[in-house]
Design goal:
The chain has 503 residues and is of the alpha/beta class. It has 19 helices and 18 strands. The protein has a 7-stranded mixed sheet, with helices on both faces. Strands 7-6-5-8-9-17 form a 6-stranded mixed sheet, with helices on both faces. It has a 3-stranded antiparallel sheet with strand order 3-4-18, with no helix packed on it. Strand 10 (242-246), helix 11 (252-264) and strand 11 form a beta-alpha-beta unit. Helix 11 (252-264) crosses helix 12. The model has no long low-confidence stretch (mean pLDDT 97). The structure holds nicotinamide-adenine-dinucleotide.
Length: 503
């Protein structure tokens, strides 16, 4: 839809399970987007000047409110996504943990730091972190609260304003969260939402000072081009085709539990979910039999209770895409070990948790992200083959390793071309806030979490100083006018590298 046509219409949000309208939001036209960014720009300098402590007070109150209103937010998340209550809870807890982590460490990560100067004793240096200004978030539907609001928390704490374009399929939990931010005392204009499809995201990217994008590699490429045109910084959190490696000697029953959890959490609609498994041939049959049995025990459906393991996919159109990949893989010679069927009796977007074997290279499912409850299993001769095949992909987001001991698993983890590798887990990286998370190759640019996860929302600026004696540093250098002077300078220059503490 063009931006002009979009003006003044409302976007109805429907449950992917029942098809009922569960809410609506106003679609933003070009003028609304411009106005939102202007309001954000006007509010941001005072917010930046307020200092970390004042900003933290508001984020702390937001986290308290999120806890108090958890049940309501879980309902909203389930309404708009069709996910299980457990998957919705993971969203709320992850946003809460984002607040806790950056409230505890953000101030230190952003503190002005003294650094060694160019010439010890005569010069000094400082590194400072200044907010970008207005950060634009363009976000997907799979974790609307984490990606729409959780990622904006460190941006706000760093002194930015945030304008978020949630997925057009799932804007309602972001609306609820922005209300909670306002109740917590966040000044007007600092956290705003603009609703609509890709055209709204594209317009937002033209106006903000930094873009934090999460979504598909195809859209990420467009965002990078648009940001490149304007020479503004950006981060891209994109898709994955995440491998799991199981070595002979690994505790098979536990590996099967971890595999099933890592594959089917959030119905497989998780950027870091397991999509491929490479299992050493010696244990392949046992692993496969147990994985089939465990997968068949998963309860598929929709419920406000905690009795369902795997929920709906986001839409019938997405279920079509997932099924197309499964059916093509089968038609090209792949074997469906379990699942592989649509479940219209449960709703229009349910797909059974599915395991496949012998998927040929020619099948799209072999290399392309499926983003559903589907995993292909492959036997491998040894760990080397597992590593080679795991790395043979344009993606590089996350990997999972199950081995006989920690040392071997660690050695494998170091050889995997992914932004993160998890030993005895698949999804652990998302909850490991102290280390950066993000992709390499076509899985992304930039990182969330850790120090970099808040510093990315700042410009690093350096201030260096010199004694003023003799015209300062430049004046001293300019005095070198003889061979003796030059020799002395060079001697001091090379001597420095030999003195511990001055290197
Ligand atoms: P998508 O790329 O279709 O859409 C993401 C967002 O971009 C939406 O808000 C959409 O409206 C907007 N958009 C679309 N075209 C645009 C354009 N030309 N300019 C600006 N904005 C535009 O992705 P999706 O289908 O919503 O999400 C699924 C994808 O997200 C999967 O590939 C998944 O792996 C990825 N993902 C990655 C991470 C991560 O952290 N790496 C996390 C979650 C999801």
């Amino acid at each position: 839809m063009s931006l002009a046509a979009a003006e003044a219409t409302r976007l109805e949000i429907r449950s992917p399970v029942t098809g009922e309208v569960v809410g609506s939001v106003a679609r933003a036209g070009g003028e609304e987007i411009a106005r939102a960014v202007e309001r954000a720009r006007a509010a941001q300098p005072t917010w930046a000047e307020a200092g970390f402590r004042d900003r933290a007070r508001i984020v702390r109150r937001f986290a308290e409110r999120l806890k108090q209103r958890q049940e309501e937010i879980l309902d909203t998340l389930q309404d708009e996504t069709g996910k299980t209550r457990r998957d919705a809870l993971a969203e709320v807890l992850t946003v809460a943990r984002t607040c806790q982590y950056y409230l505890a460490h953000g101030r230190r990560f952003l503190a002005e730091r003294r650094r060694p100067g160019a010439v010890p004793g005569l010069t000094g240096a400082r590194e400072t972190f200044a907010p970008h200004g207005v950060v634009g978030f363009v976000t997907p539907w799979n974790y609307p609260l984490i990606l729409g609001i959780g990622d904006a928390i460190p941006a706000l704490l760093a002194g930015n304003a945030a304008v978020v374009k949630p997925s057009e399929l799932t804007p309602l939990s972001a609306v609820a969260a922005v209300e909670l931010l306002a109740e917590a005392g966040l000044p007007d204009g600092l956290a705003q939402l603009v609703h609509g499809g890709g055209e709204v995201g594209a317009e937002l990217v033209k106006r903000v000072d930094y873009v934090a994008f999460t979504g598909s590699a195809a859209t990420g490429r467009k965002i990078a081009v648009a940001a490149g045109e304007r020479l503004i910084p950006y981060s891209l959190e994109l898709g994955g085709k995440n491998p799991l490696v199981v070595l002979d000697g690994a505790p098979i029953d536990r590996a099967v539990e971890g595999f099933v959890a890592g594959a089917f959490f959030n119905s497989g609609q998780t950027c870091i979910a397991v999509e491929r498994a490479y299992v050493e041939r010696t244990i392949y049959d046992e692993f496969v039999d147990k994985a089939i049995a465990r997968t068949r025990r998963l309860a598929l459906g929709y419920s406000r209770q905690w009795d369902v393991d795997v929920g709906s996919l986001i839409s019938a159109a997405h279920a079509d895409k997932v099924m197309r990949q499964v059916e093509e893989a089968r038609d090209l010679g792949g074997e469906i070990l379990t699942g592989g069927r649509r479940r219209p009796d449960l709703g229009p977007a349910f797909v059974e948790p599915t395991l496949l074997a012998e998927v040929p290279r020619s099948a799209e499912l072999h290399d392309e992200e499926t983003f559903g409850p589907v995993v292909a299993l492959y036997p491998v001769d040894d760990a080397d083959e597992a590593v080679t095949r795991a790395n043979d992909t344009p993606y590089g987001l996350n990997a999972s390793i199950w081995g006989p001991d920690g040392r071997r698993s660690l050695a494998i983890a170091r050889r995997l071309d992914t932004g993160s590798a998890s030993i005895n887990s698949a999804l652990l990286i998302y909850h490991s806030f102290a280390v950066p998370m993000g992709g390499i190759k076509q899985s992304g640019v930039g990182r969330r979490h850790g120090a970099i996860g808040i510093r990315r929302f700042t410009q690093s600026r350096s201030i260096v100083s010199s004694t003023s004696l003799a015209g300062g540093y430049d004046g001293i250098l300019a005095r070198v006018g003889s061979a003796t002077g030059a020799r002395l300078l060079a001697a001091l220059f090379y001597l420095r590298a030999k003195i511990p503490g001055l290197r």
